[in-house]
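Hey, I'm writing a tutorial for new members on how sequence and structure tokens pair up, and I'd like a real worked example in the thread rather than a made-up one. If someone can provide the structure for the chain below, I'll link this post from the tutorial.
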Amino acid sequence: MRIETTTTGAAGPYAVETIGLVKRYGATTALGGIDLRVPEQAVYVLVGPNGAGKSTLLRTLLNVVRADAGAVRVTGLEPSARGDEVRARVGYVPEDHAAGPSWLRVGRLLEHYARYFPAWDASYAARLVDALAIRRERKLGGLSKGERRRVQLVLALAHRPPLLLLDEPGDGLDHVARERALELLANHLADSPTTVLVSTHRIYEVERLVDHVGVLEAGRLLMQTTRDELQRRIRRYRADVPESWTAPTLDGAEVLRRGGLGRSIEWTIIGEEAAVAAAFTRSGATVREVATVSLDDAATALLMGRSAA
């Protein structure tokens, strides 16, 4: 099976754009020519398994990791030439949970960030601290993984940056804390013009906020499109098939996942619904249902189809 990269979706302007982005670590290619396009004020989720290159990509956007080839623009700037300016415009939650030195108290960390970011909103930061139940007097070294993640979220949001880069933002948070953080992020987007690029392998955690999707696997973008287009193209087909049935040729479509029992099949397919249904009918199958799948199921099916290629 061969799945072609698809790059449909909104035209610019883009808050983030990369062209042919390559990053290698010795003989290992972490990013193999990425053309990423994140429209301004979109919520774009970059989904993929662990080791797909998601964190490397985000660090490259900040010029924390230097690319080996390709072009990068973040909020209109080239990070390799204007890294400090780019980082001042970005709210970043890294994959790890190290918010600062273990001996530093949370309150002092917030004061440090307030001096670094001229746009720091002290009253907003205080509201976030209260909403996330963060204790200013605690030392960072004494915080749990989830508590450190909540601090990182405050640091990312409180200066109201035009771009948020969130790498596994729900990692370490329990269910209640995750829901509270998502509510705060939704409120933030309603109040502040912001583009969000979320990297995760758990798309279900942020699914209700997302309007653009990129699927990354082994350093390659398998698909980049709008939420609506992804769910339109990937559907679950339930059909009854005759005995000794021969599956049809699906021109322009791919079977991503096969399931079902006996003469009742359930396949997840990427392609145009009318053409797929017509091919089933010509083969003698009776299509019983065509269902929309969740973003999480669509991305998982796409990754499974790729791994079976």
